[in-house]
Amino acid sequence: MEKLIITAAICGAEVMKENNPAVPYTVEEIAREAKTAYDAGAAVIHLHVREDDGTPTQRHERFQKCVDAILKDCPDVIIQPSTGGATGMTAMERFDSTNITPSPQFATLSCGSCNFGDEIFENTEDIIRTFATEMKKKGIKPELECFDKGMIDIAVKMHRKGFLDAPLHFDFVLGVQMTATVRDLAFCASSIPADATWTACAIGRDEFPIAAATIAMGGHVRVGFEDNLYLEKGVPAKSNGEIVAKVVEISKLLGRGIATPDEAREILGLK
Fold first, then answer.
1. Number of helices (H) and strands (E), helices first, in the chain?
2. What CATH number does residue 87 fall under?
3. Is residue 67 part of a domain?
4. pLDDT tens for residues 50-77?
5. What's the structural domain count of the chain?
6. Which domain holds residue 68?
7. What φ, ψ does residue 117 adopt, rounded to 5°?
8. Quick check: is 1 in a domain?
9. pTM tops 0.85
10. In this predicted model, what pLDDT tens digit does every residue of 116-171 receive, in sequence order?
11. Is residue 230 part of a domain?
12. CA distances from 248 to 20, 98, 220, 223, 243 (A)
């Protein structure tokens, strides 16, 4: 089985310091959390950024500062800007995160609209086509974020129509719209093209059980404060690094090594 790629989603757009004081807002805090995850074994940093007061932003100027700060301490890590942003942002506001120098090798592309709590996370087919077209122009490989099986089908259709190039890479986000069960994880993994790679993540208490199942099934794993703030029930994680370290231990127990950033680039076909 190939080595495990660990993605650390270090802050997201929703969780706040009130939920866990280690959630990063400032450039310095974001760089710190990225470093803890990298040192523990993460090859990819899934990046949202905040203003200093914690407000989520997709401004490329803020992304540039955070990316530069992360790369200063983690020069070979793969940085994956989110184009999901936060609910309520316009599509092109969300896409501004990719307007950094150098252009990112990797970024997320959400493949459908869904309920996100009491709000709608809007990703029409026009938005998906636009993002896919612009990513192709920039040489960015999309990570196809799928919150349910229908989004996988949309991604496959976009590939068939020429908007996405093979081999595709998926991220199954479980516990938002689709339940975070091994049954549904296996359903998603069996629904993608044979040459595709995939990552999975789950929200809250389901994070580690889904990570373990994913590792055993040969997929890759995303964890971090965006998805879960606890090491176990009642025990807040002190850093993203603690969460990544737990996944590393699970992977070792299951007999899989951990991919370095360069090994992850080879597995994912990043240019």
1. 9, 14
2. 3.20.20.70
3. yes
4. 999 999 999 999 999 999 999 999 999 9
5. 1
6. 6-268
7. 65, -125
8. no
9. yes
10. 888 899 999 999 999 999 999 999 999 999 999 999 999 999 999 999 999 999 99
11. yes
12. 22, 29, 12, 11, 9
